[in-house]
C-alpha cells in the first residue's frame, strides 16, 4: 500500500469544524471564569474518560491515601497537581494543554462507522476485550459459519466454539457411559468393565482430529480451490506433488486459484525479481520420496460428499527447501492426513488451577479425517446450539481435579529440597511396572508411553540419541527465525515479524503451563532472558522469540508422565490457545552429544512457537571453572575414597560403563546387524571426541598458563580419574545443579521460590534471582537508558521500544489536529535522542517531553493507508499502554527493595520477601477475576488476532483512523504518568530510581544470612 500525502476532504472539514468548536469552547470558558481562572479552566474542560484496568480492582496498600482536595472527582485522575507538573513557564505550556483537550475529545465509536476493516481493527483487536467463544470467523464460502459448512460437508474453518462444544458433549457422554458401566460392574460381581487409572479414577475417552484443533483456513482454501470453486475441475487436474515441493508455488496455478492459500507476503508473487530468484524445482524422480498422489477421490469416498476433504496429494516427508508459504501448506497436508494424534487432551482450569484429562481413541490419523468425516459431528449435531455462554457453563461443570503438591509452603514461600533435583530411573520403571500389574488398575496411555520411553533409555547409551526436536531453520527465507519454531507446526514469518502476535501466543502458553503445574502440585519458573526481561519491568524483551522454562528434574518427570504427547487447551474464559506438550529423551542428564539439551517443549499448534522446557538436576558433568574454589575446598576436606559407593540414579547400565566396555558389548552383540553396530560405534566415537575437547577446555583453568603445570592435583583427579557416579556424588555434595547444557548453579538459589507477576500472569521465581542473573549476564547497575537489538529502554516509560519508532517521533513534521493550518517539526519541541558523540546516553525525558513523544509516535496523519509494519506499530503501542500497570507493579517491587528495606538491600532478605509476598497476595485473586471479567485485558486472544490479520488481507487500513485509535489507547498511559499517586492504586507510590543504582551489588563484604529455615543458604547479603 502506497502512502499518499493528502487527507480526504470530508475528514479535513470535520477536523476544521472540531478545531473551531474547541476554540469557541475555550473562549467561552475564559469569559465565564473572568479570565482570572484560566489556570484551571482548560483543565476543568476535560470530560471524564472511563478507565478499565486491573488496578481498579486493587485495594489500597502501603501508602496512605492522600487527603488532598480534588478539584472535581469526575476527572479520571487527580488534576490537583496538573499545573504543578505543567507550569506556565514551561516551553510546552500551550501545546500540552491543547493536547490534553484534544485527547479528551476523541470519540472513536462515532468516527468509525463506515469501513468494515476499521471496525475489525478497533472492536476486534485494539480494544483488548475478550468474550469467551464469541469470535466467529466466517468461512470463505458465502459468509456461512462453521456449523453450516460442517452440515453441508464442506471444509469448515477452525472455530473454538465448534470444537469446544463437540469435545464437551463427548466428555459428558463418556461420564454417562462410565456410570452405566460402573453400575453393571457392581451387578457382575466386580468384573472389570471400565478402565481406571492407578488411583482408581475412571478414564474418559474422546475423539480428536488435528483438522478441528489447528488453524486450517489456508488448507481449506486449497481444498475449496480443487473441489468446488468455479474452476475446480481445472485445479484438480493441475495440482500435483510438485505444487507442494517446488521452492515457490507454481505461479500459473497460484494465479488461477479463487481462494488465497496464504496471506502473508503474497504480494511477492507479482514481482518478477522474486520469481526469478526462487525458480528452483524439485527433481521429479525425488518427488516420490516426499509425496504421493492419492487414488481418485471417488475411490476414496464413493459418492459421499466427504470427497470435499480429499487432498488429492499426500505429503509423506517434510521438504525444508521451500519458502514459508509452501512449507506451511505442505505441513498442514501432513498434519491433517497422517500425523499421529496426541495421547490425551488436558483441559486446564486457570481460575482454580485444576485440570481434566481426556484420552484419545485411535491415535492414528486417517486421510481427510475430521469431526465430520469420522461421524462425531453427525452424532451430536442435534444437541449443539453453539451458544458461547452455554458452552462456558458446560466447561464449568467438568469434574476438574488438582493433585497434592510435592513441595512445601512456609507462608507465601515455596520450598523445595535436594531430592527434587534427583531422579531414579530404575526405581521409576519398577514402580510403573508394578502398577501395570495391579489388579483392576491400568496405566493411562500417557503413562504407558512414558514407561516405554524410560525402558528405551534404560537399554541405550546417550551417544546413540539422535536430535529429537527439529526446528524450521532450514526453510528458505526465514532469516534465522525458523530456529524458534517447531518444524511440524511452523506457518510463516508473521509470528516473528508481528511482535504482538508472538508475545500474545507466548503469554497464553505460559499462563496455561503455570496453571497446569499448579494443578499437578509442581513448580517451575521462567529463566535466562525471560527472567532478565522480568527484572526490568515485569515483561519480556520484545525481541525474545521464545520462553525458557526450568523445572526440578523430579517435577519435570511427573509432568511428562501425566501429559507428554498431549494437547493442552487453554481455559476458554481466558483465550483459545491449543498447545502440544512434547518431551524427548528424559534419560541420562549429561551433555552427551549435545543434540538434546532441551528436554521438552510446549508448542503452539497454530504457529510452531514454543516454550523450551529443561530439567535441573545433579549430574556427573565436570563443573564450570568458576566453582573451582568451592570444589577445591570440598576435595581438601573430604577423602575421595568415600565416594566409591555413590551412584547416579539417572544413568542407565550402559551409561555407567566406561566407553571401552560399552563398545565391546556393541561389537559382541549378535542380534545387531552390521549397519546398526557401525552407527552405534560411530556415534560413540563422535561423542567421545566432543567430550575430550570439552575436558581439555576445562583442564586449562587448572593449569599454569606459563608452563602448563597442574595447579591443583585434586581438581585434576576430579576431572580425569573419577567415574561418572563418583563425580555425581561430588557435585551433589557441593550443591551444584545444571541443565544438560552445563549451566551450573548453586542448588540453594532454587530452594526458595516467591510469587510475582509476568505479563499479568501469576508466576513463581527463585527468590535469589539477582544472583542467578548476575552469574549469567552482565547486568547494568542503573535503571537507565539502554540500547540493544534496535530497541531502547526508556526508564520513564519503564519499557523497551523500537529505536526507529522513537527517533521518527522526535523528528516528525505533522499537522497539529487542533490547528489544521500549522505544521510543526517535533525537533522544535523536544531534543533529539539520536545517539551520537555529543548526546549523553543517560539523558532522560521530562514528563512533558515523554507525553509529546507518545502523542507523536501515534502520528500517521500524512498517510492515507498504512502497511503491516505500521499497523504492527499501532498494535505494539496499544499493547504497551495496556500493560503499563504491570510495569508499575514491578516498579513497586523494586521500590520495596531499594527503599523500604534501606541499606540492607537483598532480594532474599526476610523483610523484602514478606513485603513482596503481601503485595502479591493482595492482588493475585483480583487479577484472575480481572482476566475473566475485565473490560480491558492485557492482550487480545492470539487465535482471534491471527484470524483478524487474515481477514485484513487486501483491505485498506486508513492512516487517519489509526492515528486516532492509537492516541485513544496511549492516552490512558499519559493519564497514568500524570497521576503519580494513581487514585485507584494508591499503594504503588512514586519512588523514583530512574538513573540510580538499582542493580548495583554493594560487594561481597560480609554477612552470611539465611532465608527462613534454610540455614545452608550461604549467600552474601546484597
Helical run tally: 38
- Globally, the shape reads globular
Rg from alpha-carbon coordinates: 31 Å
Tell me, rounded to a whole number, the average pLDDT. Answer: 79
SS-based class: alpha+beta
What does this protein structure show overall?
The protein is an alpha+beta fold and 1022 residues long. Among the domains are: 259 residues, no CATH class; 186 residues, no CATH class; 110 residues, no CATH class. Helices cover 41% and strands 10% of the residues. The protein has 38 helices and 24 strands. Strand 16 and strand 17 form a beta hairpin. The longest helix is centred in the N-terminal third of the chain and has 28 residues. The chain is globular, with a radius of gyration of 31 Å. The chain starts with 8 loop residues before the first helix and ends with a strand. The N terminus and C terminus are likely disordered.
